[in-house]
Structure to design on (292 residues):
DNA sequence: ATTAATAGTTACTTCCATGTGACTAAGTGA
DNA sequence: TCACTTAGTCACATGGAAGTAACTATTAAT
């Protein structure tokens, strides 16, 4: 089910991108990739999704503990927006003190799988990125000095 | 080469995440997924990468035209950071007026392939997200009214 | 002498995502 | 009566990413 582009037989990423950006295929500004990245590009959403990725329902405070550094407010904000988009389910139990549990929806889990594949790239190229960065900074420093 | 987790035979995403987050496997805070998303999560990087994904070298002003809404400054900033991380190459021609061309590096192209797969998810679930969002807002509106 | 072209840089401003700390409801147990 | 618990909300403060507009070098063409 990897049929992003089925308008033509596009086999290389170049062909795919070219086909994709063709105004005949989509309205201008249509960019699902950007949509996803915007959705998970904030500070906490991805971490919430990852922590719910264990497959167990987690209570609010469990998440707060597991997601290091997150504030109460930001956890609420993050979970609300994930819930709104249908990526997590929220279960409220009528108890005192309150109990609220969160879990990934199937849609959220599918996203996690996709996002997870990015990790392959990150791991494979992490060293190379750091190298490139160091080399670049070294050059920049030289220029500034002279 | 999809061997993110080879410590165990982890077949479900739950197992993968569990294995991944095990402090025995990685130092705390190690999260390559977050790294990538941070890298492309800014406003323009992804759009620059996508536009360079055609496989053709593009001049500064070509990019500026193609990336709708980007300012001169932000294009420079974006390209510089991509160059620094080794995702794009920059070719300067000693001409007047200046000519500078940009292209994806192989590493950048590999990233594009991965990121592209997110589009599959986005396209598949776009309608469902919008539905979920509308339903959520409708409920929220009711609560406010009462 | 002036304009035009390209690929920037620089100084300044603005705004929104995020952070902080106090506050709340509702019941339980001491 | 008071403290304690959980899962929040609310008002306000802040930093940094992004935006804006003016300025630059260099040469060719008019």
């Amino acid at each position: 089910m990897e049929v992003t582009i089925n308008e033509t037989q596009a086999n290389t990423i170049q062909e795919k991108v070219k086909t994709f950006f063709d105004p005949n295929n989509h309205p201008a500004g249509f960019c699902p990739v950007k949509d996803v990245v915007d959705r998970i590009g904030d500070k906490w959403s991805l971490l919430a999704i990852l922590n719910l990725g264990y497959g167990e329902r987690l209570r609010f405070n469990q998440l707060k503990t597991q997601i290091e550094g997150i504030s109460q407010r930001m956890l609420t904000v993050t979970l609300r927006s994930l819930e709104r988009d249908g990526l997590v389910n929220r279960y409220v139990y009528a108890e005192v003190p309150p109990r609220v549990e969160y879990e990934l929806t199937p849609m959220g889990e599918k996203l996690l799988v996709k996002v997870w594949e990015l990790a392959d790239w990150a791991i494979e190229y992490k060293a190379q990125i750091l190298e490139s960065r160091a080399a670049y900074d070294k050059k920049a420093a030289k220029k500034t000095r002279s």
Observations:
- Chain A touches chain B through 62 residues (CB under 8 Å).
- Residues 106-145 of chain A form the longest helix (40 residues).
- Residues 32-145 of chain A form a domain with the Arc Repressor Mutant, subunit A fold (CATH 1.10.10.10).
- DSSP finds six helices and three strands in chain A.
